[in-house]
Fold each of these.
Amino acid sequence: MAGRFITFEGIDGAGKSTQIDRLQTLVEASGRVVCRTREPGGTPVGEKIRGILLAEDMTPETETLLFFAARAEHAARKIRPALERGEWVISDRFTDATYAYQVGGKGMSGERVEALERWTLGGFEPDLTVLFDISPAAAARRLAARAGAEDRFEAMGEDFFAKVRAAYLERARRRPERFLIVNAELAPELVFDAILRKVSPWL
Ligand code: TMP
């Protein structure tokens, strides 16, 4: 049985985690092994880089390079080996997040990011990317209701998240074969139904 690589994307507070939990349970119930992972992170080196990225102030250039350093390790040491074993890989974020946050949100050059992507990943991409679309105001309400301190990204204002959202949507519209856009403001059951419709033919 072939493995599949599915990523979840969206602005902070879009409600990805609950849906990832549900998808993991469903895929495992079908007898597949799921490798659940996240970015930045997913490997020992990646998790250390994550600690730096979420806590320290740095230039957008440094930030972009660190996201790709963590991603190169993640793809080579975790994602690709799992797919070769026939597992399903479900990742909370991947390369699209850099195009949305660093290029869309912070104005980094898209061409430089494309060069980094080519260098570190070749043409390696997810089979499916589920984009959780939500207004920055609704996402901010969800984040505020959550316990714990905000990280460096969650603390950015609604203007920043409006740019990130627009960049995600633009990317998804240009790649309709890979992206599924879900309205994350709908009831969780409806959101999961939309994901299921896309994934069930693979099960
Ligand atoms: P999260 O695990 O809560 O999603 O935190 C990761 C944060 O890092 C989130 O705010 C999105 C941000 N991020 C980027 O800015 N660029 C990236 O390439 C990735 C993977 C995440």
Amino acid sequence: MIIKPKVRGFICTTAHPKGCKVHVEEQIDYVKAHKPASAGPKNVLVIGCSNGYGLASRISAAFGYGANTLGVMFEKEPSEKRPASAGWYNTKAFEAAAAAEGVFAKSLNADAFSDEAKAQVIDVIKNEMGGKVDLVVYSLGSPRRTDPETGVTYSSSLKAIGEPVTRKSLNTDTKEVSDFTLEPATDEEIANTVKVMGGEDWERWIDQLSAAGVLAEGVQTTAYSYIGKDLTWPIYGGATIGRAKQDVDRACTAIQQKLKAELNGSAHVSVLKAVVTQSSSAIPVMPLYLSILIRVMKERGTNEGCIEQVHGLLTEQLYSGAELTLDEAGRIRMDLKELEPDVQAEVEAIWNKVDSSNVSELTDFAEYQKEFFKLFGFGYDQVDYEQDVNPIV
Ligand code: NAD
């Protein structure tokens, strides 16, 4: 099969196995070139392991620290007629690279919100990972969740809270910049978004892992969050998704108390910078914000992607051997370079000027697009996209 990108709106519906392999290998190479100075995790569970920040976490743990990893993902398998989703190919490439180095890696393609997936994970930890994990990374990005207690499926909404919000947005197909309006969410939509992207499922994971006795003494867990500043606030931090992230903070406090008491363990929310991932490209304001942010941070030499952010989180914070640096709410902040006042001021100045006629000139949309295609394994010079490739890996 010849596999070419097929873009529908903010998603690419095809993925290239060889390109995804390169995408994973690039991140492995980064980690190998930045070996940690201190000891790190040994047995790691990554919930949402196949793309973006979760994939990078798994790579950092396995190739930085030689950790055994168990990953949970929700990906489409390949068939004779259709390529798999990118996360499937990423995971296959990750597993092959780990096997080549004799590092244990197992992945479950299952709905992480279900209790069945949790039970399966517990079995693998007990039977194949020596009985306990010492790091649990929670990195799900999902538009819906079925509550295992009630069977009700909730959908999240990207909506404003209170008043409608109008913002510039970039159509990544046509390169047109135009205004779009986020309508205010109803109370039910806010509650449903919290149900999906809030902290309830993270708590449920920790409760069930703890009850099964598969968390090690001193276990650490972290969930990822985004806060942002003025430009993104009305559509992120101050919107429905921001409410869900507040609920992750709430859950973190509860998990922290539980783990501290039971296992001398700890829980932290890690706030990461905005990066190009499948989840972020679905948020209306993000492609334009990121196209500008990438340009401004690249000029300063401070731009980072998933692997730099997460490897930094492990080596400089969670496993540095020193005290964690936390904000006033007890969160780890890896987003500070994005939020530097002069970075935000420059992003805002460009934001105010940008329109369809000057978007290529004022922003680094070219880099945004390159990174977007790389998520699906496209745009690598070392891959021959004209060549027939077997979609079944
Ligand atoms: P992503 O879309 O790249 O990856 C999401 C992962 O979740 C994939 O591995 C997918 O398979 C998995 N997943 C989704 N639904 C699942 C389900 N039901 N069962 C099992 N696995 C499932 O997302 P991302 O951008 O890396 O986001 C991960 C976390 O990081 C989110 O909490 C997000 O809010 C946070 N974050 C993202 C950014 C950003 O700019 N992308 C910034 C800061 C924080």
